[in-house]
Amino acid sequence: xLRYRFVLLLLVLWSPVWATEHLVGVGRPYxxxxxxxxxxxxxxxxxxxxxxxxxGNLAIDRPLTLLGVNYPVLDGQHLAEVITVTASYVTIRxxxxxxxxxxxxxxxxxxxxxxxxxxxxxxxxLRDCNFGIYLSDTDDARICCNDVQxxxxxxQNSGNGIHLWKCARIMVEENYxxxxxxxxxxxxxxxSEIRNNNSxxxxxxxxxxxxxxxxxxxxxxxxxxxxxVAVMYSRQVQMTENEFGYNWGSAAYGLLLKDISDSHIWRxxxxxxSAAVYMEGASRITLEQNVFxxxxxxxxxxxxxxxxxxxxxxxxxxxxDVSTNGSLVLNSFDSNYWDRYEGYDLNxxxxxxxxxxxxxxxxxxxxxxxxxxxxxxxxxxxxMDKAEKIIPALTPELLLDEKPSMSPLxxxx
Amino acid sequence: MLPSFRIIxxxxxxxxxxxxxIGYTLFLFxxxxxxxxxxxxxxxxxxxxxxxxxxxxPLVSIVFSTIHFYNSYExxxxxxxxxxxxxLIVWSEFWGLTIALTLATLVGIGVPVVVxxxxxxxxxxxxxxxxxxxxxxxxxxxxxxxxxxxxxGIGVVLLLWFLFALLYDALVLFLMFAFADYPLxxxxxGFVCLNPIDLARVVxxxxxxxxxxxxxxxxxxxxxxxxxxxxxxxxxxxxVWAIVPMLLAVRxxxxxxx
Lengths: 413, 258
Description:
A: 13-stranded parallel β-sheet; 11% helix
C-alpha cells in the first residue's frame, strides 16, 4: 500500500509538468476519443465532455488519464469491449459505460485491464455490460466508487460485476454491484482489501473467493443474492463487520466456507438467510462476536471441519442454531449467547451453570433426512426436542457450549 | 321454510346461545390479538397463531361437537319419531355445528388476521382453521353415532384428537427412521395428506418464507402444495376428510337402533 501511495504522489506531482490535456467533445479539438488516443503521449490526460461516443473498442496502451465530465456515455452497442487497458499507470474516471458485447468464447467487459499495474478505475457507471470491471494479471490497482448494474440474464450468459484474476494488492471500495452473476469475483488474488461495497441481487454470489489468500473484506453489505457469499479454497481471509442478509433459497447461504483455513470472522451480522454460515472442510477459523438473527440455520458445520472456534456470538430467533452431519466434534463452542438457553446462573456471574447443547434432535433428523422438514413446527417435534435436551441420545454429546452467556453480549464498537 | 332449514336453524340457535361457543370465540379473539400485539412482527404472530390453530381448533371442534350431540340426544330421538328422514337429522346437526364453529373461527381468528396480517399467509391460515374445524366436526359425529355411551364417546374423540395432533407425527418420524435408506420424498406427501392437521400445517408453512429451508423436498412440496392450485388441492383433501366421515356417520345413523 505504501509503495502504491508513493507512486500516486509522484504522479500527482509530476503530471502538471509533463502532461498535455486533450479535450474531446462537440466543438472541442477532438471529436472522437480515438483521435485523441492516437495523438496522446504517455502521461497525457484526455478529458471527454458530455455526449454519446459509440466508437467500438478503446484500446489504451500508454499510461494515460481519462476523465469524463458529466458522465459521457461510451456505448459498446452490444458488440465491443468498451475499454481495454494494457498499460500501467492508467486512470479512468467519470464515464458512463454501457452495452458491452457478449460472447460465450471470450470474457467481454466494460473495462478490462490486462497485465498492467497501478491502474485506477473510479466513479464510473456501468450499465448492461457482460463483465463490468475485469482485471487480469494486475497488481496495485484501485477500483473505487463505481456503480455497476447488469441486467439479470441466465447464469451461463452473465458475467461478474468486478472480476479479478491473478492480482495482488488491489483495493476495491465503495462500489455498488447488482444484476451480475457474481457481484465481486476473486480468483488467485492476494493481499487485497474489499471494503464498504454494496453487492445485492446478483444471480449467484454477492462475493466469490477462490484460491485467494491474505485478503481482508470488511464493512460490506451482501443482500438478496442468489446464493450469498462464497469463500472457497483460501486461507488467511479476514471477514469483519459485514452484513449478510436475505439470502433465501434452497441452496442459499449467508456465507459459504469451503476448504478454507486460518481465517477470522469477526463482528458480522447475519440476518434472514437460509443458512447463515455453512462450513465444509474449514479449519482453524475463529467465528467471534457475530450476530445471527432469524436465519433458517445459524451454523451448519459439517463433520469435515476441525479446530474452529465459535465464541461470543449472539444467536436470536434462528429456526436451527447449529446442525452437523456427524457425531464427531472437533470444534469448540464457547461463551455464546443462545436465546434458546433455559439454564440458570446461581452465582450470578453472567455465565450459565449448565452447558447448552445447540444442536437439537430435530436438527439432526433434518440433516439426515431433509424431507423431515415436513414435520417442522409440529408439536411432537417440540416435545421430542425437550426430551432430548434432558437426556441426549442422538445429538452429538460433545457439541456443547460449556459457558453460555445468560444475556446477549454487547458488541458495541 | 323447508323442514331441513328449520331444523338447522333450531340447532344453530341452540349452539349459538351456548356459553362455551361464546367463550371459545372470545378465547380465540383474545389469543389472536395478544399474539399479534406481542411480537410486533405480524409473521411471528401468525406462527404463534398457527400453533393454536393446529392444537386448539381440532380439540374444541371435536369435543364440543361430541358433547353437543350427546346433549341433544333426546331432541334427536324426538325428531326421529317425526315423519322426516333420519339422514336429515344428522346433516342438520352437522350444518348447525359447522356454521356455528365457522362463525366462531372467522370472528376469533379471521378478524384479527384481517386487521394485522391480511396477506396470503394470513388468509391461508384462516382457511385451514375453518377447514380443520369442519373436518373434526365430521369425525366427532362419526364417533358419536358409533358409540352410545357419552363418556365412551368423549374418550374416543379425545383419543382421535391425540392421534391426529401428536401420535401421527411420532409415527411418521418412526417410519422415517425405519426407512431412512429409501427416498421418502413422495411418500411424505402421502403421509401429509393422510392427516388433516399435518396438511393444514404444511400449507400454511409453505406460504411463509420458511419454505426456503425445505430444500429439494420443499421444492417438491412447493410445486405441489405451494401454488394456488396446491391450496385448492389441500382444501379439496380437507373436504374429503370432512365429507367421508360424515357420509359414514349418516350411513351408520340410518341403520342405528336408537
